[in-house]
Amino acid sequence: MLYDRRPQAEDISQIIKDHLYLVDILVGRMVTQVPTFMNSDDMKSAGMLGLFDAAKRFDPAKNIKFKTFAEYRIRGAILDEMRKLDWFSRSLRDKQNRVGKTIFSLELKLGRDPEDYEVAEAMELSLDEYQSLLAEVSHLGCVSLNETLDSSEEGRSFIDSITDEKSEILPGARIEQQQLTEKMASILEQLSKKERLVVALYYYEELTQKEISEVLDLSEGRVSQLHSQALIKLKTKLATQIY
Q: Do the Cβ atoms of 46 and 78 come closer than 8 Å?
């Protein structure tokens, strides 16, 4: 069997062939969130490197499925390629963090989730300027949610906590990860109804932005804004609770 022992040199080619479909699946999920200058071919090339790396590094002794391990490696390789392209600049990071801190401060002050116009006012922006800012940092959501919450190779990420994938988990981390998923579920309840719907349709139902806009009868631009704002809130809320 290929998956009950460390892969040997002669195993790697077959393992890669058996799991090429994972690259296509992950690229399909992430392609709508990346900048236009990074096309699906770029993503597939990076994903293939991640799959190859997973095939070389897989260790069944860690009690985790190869598919789960490979998904982390493929996704991580795609994100690494984005970083090499210097896609998410420091200025965009700063803007995203500013939005998150403003929303968090308003929640403490108001005792509720702030409306868009309230966030815009606190940032001394018009509503249109604020929504344009959300569109500008929207692609950062893909990276933010895929960042791991710990330094281990199998560490769960924000997105894993949202989707709650039923994968094999190391026994020592099972309780901690269950608590993390429960925290994420609690935080999701704090989002607005439309934000929750966008998150559910995108990450649970795996609909495209266009399909979500049709389901919710909203423009694609508005769906993008809701998605971006929801991810900023999730990242900020979860970070303040964990760290």
A: yes
On whether the CB atoms of residues 238 and 184 are closer than 8 A, the answer is yes
Nearest to 136 by CA among 173, 87, 188: 87
d(CA 22, CA 68): 10
Question: What is the per-residue pLDDT across 11-37, written as a single tens digit (0 to 9) for each?
Answer: 788 888 889 999 998 888 777 666 666
Nearest in space to 119 (alpha carbons), one of 134, 92, 99, 138: 99
Tokens 């710990």 found at: 150
The model carries a pTM of: 0.59
Is residue 4 classed as helix, strand or coil in its secondary structure? coil
SS3 157: strand
Does domain 1-87 sit in CATH 1.10.1740.10? yes
**Short-list 2, 133, 101, 96, CA closest to 58:** 2
pLDDT of 2 over the 70 cut: no
207 exposure class (CB count in 10 Å sphere: 0-12, 13-18, 19+)? middle
Compute the distance between CA of residue 233 and CA of residue 237 in angstroms, rounded to an integer. 6
One of 3.40.720.10, 1.20.140.160, 3.40.640.10, 3.40.50.10540 is the CATH number of 90-141+174-242, namely: 1.20.140.160
CA–CA separation, 235 and 145 (whole Å): 7
Please name which of 177, 175, 139 lies closest in space to residue 158, comparing C-alpha atoms. 177
Percent of residues in the chain assigned helix, strand, coil, to nearest 5:
70, 0, 25
Could you tell me how many helices (H) and strands (E) the chain has, helices first?
13, 0
